[in-house]
Design brief:
The complex is a heterodimer of chains A (371) and B (142). Chain A is an alpha/beta fold. Chain A has two domains: 224 residues, no CATH class; 133 residues, no CATH class. Chain A contains 15 helices and seven strands. Chain A has a seven-stranded mixed β-sheet. In chain A, a hairpin with an 8-residue loop joins strand 6 and strand 7. Chain A is globular and about 70 Å long. Chain B has one domain: 3-Layer(aba) Sandwich (Rossmann fold). In chain B, helix 1 packs across helix 4. Chain B is built from four helices and four strands, in the order βαβαβαβα. Chain B has 142 residues and is an alpha/beta fold. In chain B, 39% of the residues lie in helices and 16% in strands. The chains are: A alpha/beta (371), B alpha/beta (142). Chains A and B meet through helix 9, helix 10, helix 12, helix 13 and helix 15 of A and helix 2, helix 3 and strand 4 of B.
Chain lengths: 371, 142
């Protein structure tokens, strides 16, 4: 059912905070996972149980310190569970769906609350903006939403690179959808929810908004930007440079894997004793080719990670943010991922019931690959 | 590029129940085939993690053969069907990352097909001779 929250005193965030409080007070959820303003002025996700503290909640702050899918997984993976409302952006919800398919999250104990996104800044950029102008920085989401409507093909250049080419800024399959795109958010916040929840919340249906029109333009513009980024990275990957050249300055710190919401293994094989080689092993490898790049197995790490997770890659770009040598990890994974995903007609995060391509099969497919 | 002196090195990951037994049959039947293959036995083609294949490729193996039971004959019901999807994924990734995915072969060879195993190795050795050495053999920065 589509409904809306009337914004009081043009205070959109305050109105949303009141709504979140009502979710706790009416017992719809027992706790909320929500981005909070920390006393130091930054943004951090927190599990909130005291409704009073929600006056510090800020799901609109345009920054994504971690992909919250991992956190929602931690809150739901094992019994006993409590009903937790998780306020997440589209890329986080799509990652959460992927985690549920590998039993690393349990959607039935979560109330998923999707909040429209107009892009996020890197944590350092956001921190800098906060320290120079607290009031302006915390309201910068308004500027981003206006830009997304007025000039969808020209996103704020200082957004994270993944956000500038994001063609899925909203997630439509959540239990509650908080809509900002296509709404006059100084007057009202759009809200789509199940009939059961809206009855519990005592909300009445309202007219639709311009969201569909705005989204259509935004998705087209962002898809075009994405495709030109894909073309640029593909010409490097498929050219003389190859993936080897693109990842030439990788120091194998594993940050990309650590922050990846899809890489859920508790002990990655690359961190295990399998890669504790004997000194003579390195010497033998160096003898074979005349030299051995060290740290060793750098390309093996990236190619293996591609094979293990790229079908589920949602393009959140956390990997790019975490890379200390500023490698374009995210765009490489997205560009290659798109090709593999289309081979299997698979879209990560689309549907929790859809099976991961590598755990299922048809007897009569790709008969030309295995002869 | 055909190099007369070039002898390709093939790493073969063979399933215990079909292709490995087929290779064994080729041996006990005294069938001749090129000595270019190094065999690694696994319980199932479905147990071939991409990391094994990628390691061999990056280390400079000229060809990689994954051998399993014919579709429908897997000892574990569906391991070979899953192996096929994994190989499709792996080849697509390698192709998009600038590697030559045609160095990876997936073949179904049963325990009674010693002849077919020998023929596959002959065929693969010839194809790889035609292709030339894996450029990874002389690429240290990987």
């Amino acid at each position: 059912m589509h409904t809306s929250l009337a914004v009081r005193d043009r205070n959109t965030l305050g109105t949303l905070q009141d709504f979140l409080k009502s979710l706790l007070e009416k017992g719809i959820v027992e706790a909320l996972l929500v981005p909070m303003r920390t006393p130091a002025g930054g943004i951090s996700p927190a599990l909130v149980m005291d409704p009073k503290l929600l006056s510090e909640a800020d799901p609109f702050a345009p920054v994504l310190p971690v992909n919250g899918a991992t956190l929602a997984g931690q809150l739901s993976v094992r019994e006993p569970r409590v009903k937790v409302g998780v306020i997440l952006r589209s890329c986080e919800l799509r990652a959460l769906v992927e985690l549920s398919k590998v039993q690393q999250a349990n959607l039935s104990s979560l109330v998923t609350i999707s909040v429209d996104c107009a892009g996020t800044y890197s944590v350092p950029n956001y921190q800098r903006a906060i320290s120079s102008n607290q009031k302006h920085a915390s309201n910068s989401w308004q500027k981003l939403f206006r830009l997304a409507t007025d000039t969808p093909g020209q996103p704020d250049p200082s957004l994270r690179s993944a956000c500038k080419i994001c063609e899925q800024p909203v997630y439509e399959d959540a239990d509650i959808i908080i809509e900002l795109h296509g709404t006059d958010f100084e007057q009202e916040i759009g809200l789509t929810t199940t009939d059961e929840l809206s009855a519990k919340l005592g909300m009445a249906p309202t007219q639709g908004n311009d969201r569909a029109i705005v989204m259509d333009k935004l998705v087209k513009a962002r898809s075009a930007l994405r495709d030109s980024e894909f073309a640029a990275i593909r010409s490097r990957l498929e050219g003389a440079e190859g993936i080897n050249g693109v990842f030439v300055s990788c120091i194998r710190c594993h940050n990309c894997m650590t922050v990846c919401p899809i890489c859920y293994c508790k002990t990655c094989v690359f961190k295990s004793a399998v890669f504790d080689h004997e000194p003579m092993q390195y010497v033998n490898w160096a003898k074979q080719k005349g030299a051995l790049r060290m740290p060793a197995d750098t390309m093996l790490f990236h190619l293996t990670r591609l094979n293990h997770m790229v079908l589920s890659c949602v393009g959140c770009g956390m990997c790019t943010e975490a890379c200390p040598t500023e490698l374009p990890v995210g765009i490489v994974f997205r560009a290659i991922g798109q090709r593999i995903q289309s081979v299997f007609e698979y879209a990560p995060g689309r549907n929790p019931e859809e099976k991961l391509p590598l755990i299922t099969f048809k007897a009569d497919e790709w008969t030309e690959v295995g002869e | 590029m055909t190099d007369e002196t070039f002898e390709p090195k093939i790493i073969a990951f063979l399933c215990n129940w079909c292709t490995y037994t087929g290779a064994d049959l080729a041996g006990t039947s005294r069938l001749q085939y090129p000595p270019n293959v190094r065999i690694i036995r696994l319980m199932c083609s479905g147990a071939v993690d991409p990391i094994y294949v990628l390691k061999a490729d990056l280390a400079g193996a000229d060809g990689i053969l994954i051998g399993g039971c014919h579709p429908g004959d897997c000892h574990y019901q569906e391991g070979n069907y899953k192996a096929r999807r994994r190989v499709v994924t792996m080849k697509e990734i390698l192709k998009n990352a600038g590697f030559d995915e045609e160095r990876i072969w997936l073949r179904w060879i049963s325990a009674s097909e010693g002849q077919r195993f020998a023929e596959t190795i002959r065929e693969m050795t010839a194809a790889l001779k035609e292709k030339g050495p894996n450029p990874m053999k002389s690429t240290w920065a990987v």
